[in-house]
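go over whats below:
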Amino acid sequence: MSTVTVQPPTPTRRKVFKADAVERGVVQILKDEYKISDVGEATCPENQLVAPDVSFISIVEVGGVDKSVKITAKSEDGEYEVGQPH
């Protein structure tokens, strides 16, 4: 599980993940926790809601092939879980 900087809410907006921070975190988690050595760049969608159990898909290059990775928010504080690449 990782935590990432989030954009603070405003009266009309809810907290959202910063895509570039999630991308860096996903790559690091796949390398450090999943022990995948040939991880390339990740691409995550912008403005994903920071709320428990909200999930989205990021694309990560693994061994030169694009793979889908499910990201699941675990808290409103920006903690998230990174799934196995498929």
About this structure: The radius of gyration is 13 Å. The CA atoms of residues 1 and 81 lie 5 Å apart. The helical segments are 19-32. The chain has a mean pLDDT of 91.
